[in-house]
Amino acid sequence: MKPKEHIILKAKILWIEGKRAEGPSFVPDLRRKGFTVDTVPTGKAALARLTEVGIDLVVVDAASFRTSGQRICQVLRQEWEKLPILLIANPERSVSKDTCADVVLHLPFTSRKLVNRILPLLPAASNNLLNAGPISLDLERKSVRCGEKETRLTPRLTHLLKVFLKHPGEVLERESLFRQVWNTEYTGDTRTLDVHISWLRQAFEMDPRRPRFLRTIRGVGYRLDT
Predict the structure, then answer these.
(1) Which of 43, 106, 130, 214 is least enclosed, having the fewest CB within 10 Å?
(2) pLDDT tens readout for residues 44-74
(3) DSSP E strands: which ranges in the chain?
């Protein structure tokens, strides 16, 4: 799998679409391709959602509002300076150069073209993203995403999860984890590790009491099953 395609599967998009959309929505197609897409009906709702969850890209479907969409883009840019914005414009309406959108697409176009324009706007794969199965760790944001669940992590929890993601399917001994994450040779009391494992499960497991991914291997340590 190519690196850019890999990012698609992990990208989270906030889609602003009005109720008066006349053309087909691209949201179902993007979800089938692996994107996580949250939809909101207004720019105001988008601003509220952006404060709650980590978003990689905002799509403003101005055609569904029958407006130019410029005002929404400008407000988003004022609040979130570095957030990529893609504007879907109605060909019957002109869009000025100061629209504040990074990319402007005029209808009609295909889902494939939309994906091709979205892809360059996403964060670079670099070393900031670690993935194993459905679990994605953003080292820069210190956040973990699993399905629809996303949680901010402390630096220590980020380091601990990073170790697991680099060794998926492997049984990691408690003493080894303690040495790598706490950078100490003293492993006489590893209860601190158990507490951090519990916090990690709360961060990305759907049912932390019955973990699906981060398994306990009795008498040995832990294993990340993906």
Answers:
(1) 106
(2) 999 988 877 678 899 999 988 878 888 899 9
(3) 12-17, 36-40, 57-61, 85-89, 103-106, 129-132, 135-138, 143-146, 149-152, 171-173, 214-217, 221-224
Tell me which H or E stretch contains 115. helix 111-118
- Mean pLDDT value of segment 8-31: 77
Q: In the prediction, which pLDDT does 22 show?
A: 56
Indicate whether 70 and 100 sit together in one domain.
Answer: yes
β 221-224/214-217 pair status: antiparallel
Separation in Å, CA 76 to CA 32, 63, 82, 160, 224: 27, 17, 10, 35, 38
Mean pLDDT, residues 87-114: 83
If asked whether residues 144 and 209 sit together in one domain, one would say: yes
Type of residue found at 85 = I
Domain that holds residue 189: 129-224
Strand partners, 204: none
The total of structural domains in the chain comes to 2
Q: Which residues contact 222 (CB under 8 A, 6 or more apart)?
A: 164, 171, 172, 174, 177, 197, 214, 215, 216
